[in-house]
Amino acid sequence: MSETTYIIDLTLDGKNRYRHRHVLEQNEIIEFSIQYETFLEGTWHALVRYDSAHGFAHRDLMHPDGRETKTVFRHWDYAQVLTFGERDLKQNWRTYRETYLAELQERK
Prior knowledge:
Radius of gyration: 14 Å
Helix content: 25-40%
Distance between the termini: 47 Å
Structural class: alpha+beta
Number of helices: 1
Number of strands: 6
């Protein structure tokens, strides 16, 4: 069994990052967690996370009020969701950030 973890800065200012963790056993992903995080008001905030917590692959979309919107990938294996999620976070992090900031402004 091997575990891989890393963080990639998405912006030069270091305030947006992609966090990656997966566990591989006999060439099969048996556990994973990847997320987009942004630094706001002196604190890191996870905005979107794909993971295998609770025994199934899903995406959690976080909202400033503490709610989480869950999307379940019922007929996908962990490797498929990991690949899809990695591509999604790296390509769409700006949109996730803009949506989160807009929701944050609505709360004020």
